[in-house]
Write a structure and sequence with these properties.
The chain has about 180 residues and is mainly α. The protein folds into 2 domains: about 5-90, Rna Polymerase Sigma Factor, Chain: A; about 105-175, Arc Repressor Mutant, subunit A (Orthogonal Bundle). It contains 7 helices and no strands. Helix 2 (about 30-45) crosses helix 3 (about 55-90). It is elongated.
C-alpha cells in the first residue's frame, strides 16, 4: 500500500494521529474541540480523492490547519450573528446596563388580540356605505377619488362615509 493513494493517506493519518491531535490542541486551546476536528480530519482523509501526494504528513497538517481556520471563521460568523440579534433584542443597551425586554407580555398580546377582534367587529357592523368606503380606502389603499369612482358617488360623499366610519370605530375602541 503506497502513501500516495487514498488508503495511503488514511494510513498516514494513523501514523501521525497523536502529532495531529497535539497540533490541533495547540491551535484551538480545547482538547474536546481538537478531538472533533481530528475526527473530521479522519473523515476527510478517508474521502479524499486526490492524485499522488508528495508529502502526506504536510498534506494532513495543511488539512488540519484548514479545519481550524474554518472553525474559527464559523465562530466569528456566529458571534456577529448573535451580536446583531442581541443588539436588536435589547435595543442596543450599553455593556453593564440591564437590557429592556421589548417583547410583548402575554397580557399585552391578549389585549392586542381583543382590540383587533373589537375593530373587526366594529368594521363589520358599520353601515354598508361607510363600510365599503372604509374598506376601499383604508384596507385596499385607494384614494378618495378612486373610491368615489368605484362606488359611483361624489368625493364629498366618500369623505362623509369615512367620517361616519371613523367616528363609529373610535367609539367602538373607546368602549
Amino acid at each position: 500500500m503506497s502513501p500516495d493513494n487514498e488508503s495511503g493517506l488514511e494510513a498516514l493519518y494513523g501514523i501521525y494521529r497523536a502529532e495531529l491531535l497535539r497540533f490541533l490542541v495547540a491551535r484551538t486551546g480545547d482538547a474536546s474541540e481538537a478531538e472533533d476536528l481530528l475526527q473530521e480530519l479522519w473523515l476527510r482523509a478517508r474521502q479524499q480523492n486526490t492524485g499522488p501526494i508528495g508529502n502526506g504528513r504536510a498534506y494532513l497538517y495543511r488539512m488540519a490547519q484548514n479545519l481550524v481556520v474554518d472553525r474559527l471563521r464559523e465562530k466569528q460568523r456566529r458571534m456577529v450573528r448573535e451580536r446583531r440579534w442581541t443588539d436588536q433584542e435589547t435595543d442596543f443597551a450599553a455593556a453593564g446596563v440591564e437590557p429592556a425586554d421589548r417583547r410583548r407580555t402575554t397580557e399585552e398580546q391578549m389585549l392586542a388580540r381583543e382590540e383587533v377582534a373589537t375593530l373587526v367587529s366594529a368594521v363589520t357592523n358599520l353601515p354598508a356605505g361607510a363600510r365599503k368606503a372604509f374598506e376601499l380606502h383604508k384596507l385596499q389603499g385607494l384614494s378618495h377619488a378612486e373610491v368615489a369612482a368605484e362606488l359611483g358617488i361624489s368625493k364629498s360623499g366618500v369623505e362623509k362615509h369615512m367620517a361616519v366610519a371613523m367616528k363609529y370605530l373610535r367609539r367602538a375602541l373607546l368602549d
